Model the fold of this input.
Amino acid sequence: MKYVSVGKYAIPLWVLGVILVGICIGAFALYMTLTFIIPFEVKEPIEVLYHPSQLSLYPGDIVYFNVTVRNNALQNYTIFLDFSLDNATYENSYVTFSNATYFVRSGVQNLTAWVIVSAEAPSTNAVLTVNLFREASQDSDVEHMIITSMEFSGSGTTIKVTINNTGTIPVTISEAQINYTKKMTNPPLPQTVTANNGLTLSITSPWVPGNIYQVKLISLRGNSFSYTGVAPFDFTQTEQLILTKQHVWYNTTGGWAEAALVIKNVGTRDVVIDKISVRGQECPWTNVYHWKTNNTSISDDLQVTSNPLTGDTFNITVQGGERVFQRATDDLALEVGSAVVVYIMNPDSITLNDIGTPVAMTVFTTNATYYSIETNVEAAG
Done:
């Protein structure tokens, strides 16, 4: 038997082998105990917060509606909404959908879509399927413009459109077309619209009640932005609201939120506001305070209140004077030429973490939907 000398001891070689094997096995066993499992998930970043539960139209109608989405990722996406009826023959013959592409930043955003039903369409009951496709927008230097409204005026001679730059870079509009024919505008083109700002263009073009007209605006880069509408049969009775002075604040001291905006009726008929939403969530009328005027021009910016809105009335300074705001109890009527200043208490559960996040407000009437340019949640208090 062979031995190995260790100091003054002689250890059999086979014993030394057993010790070495035991050490190796122990080391291997120790390594294996470090294995563990972690669940791994990649979530869908786009969440649909709101869409119409039903669309009901008559032949010849055009309806605009919002699909409200939340982008939970930091990545910007280009989103395409594809609409299809379960009756393809009927759709191909009588129905046209917007099928538009949208640029969606992180946060909540309204995607405005439309549907037109031909004047010759027979009655039907069908199911509308909406498919949402997304693609990562790698290029931040991309033009994104939305035409938010179209108004037929001038006794059949003018079409007015309002556009918003929803991207991050300026967009210069160089040409306007109506049904693929170049037209003159006021103000004259080219016009540059900076990020998160808007522009109203009056386009000189004859129009006939009941006809369909497509507005196409073309940028210097060659990108085009389109909107389609049907000229009303009674052009003296058109609905048009303008939303301005929009703000959303979070009071960091008191822990409450507040929103405000001005709604102007610049159309030719009275309207009824039946819903206001912030970030796609409807605001209860009990949280809405309003002051209406038809003789005061509101040019000053709106300011956050120092205390939360409470009670049936609340005094707020607007345009240099203290105004008495009423708590809403039902839909708000807004006459032609009038404006209403609206303050909303605790809209859509705005929290401290939302400061700096862009938020959009939407106003709904019986016949149309209007949404504001996004505004960042501001810190107050």
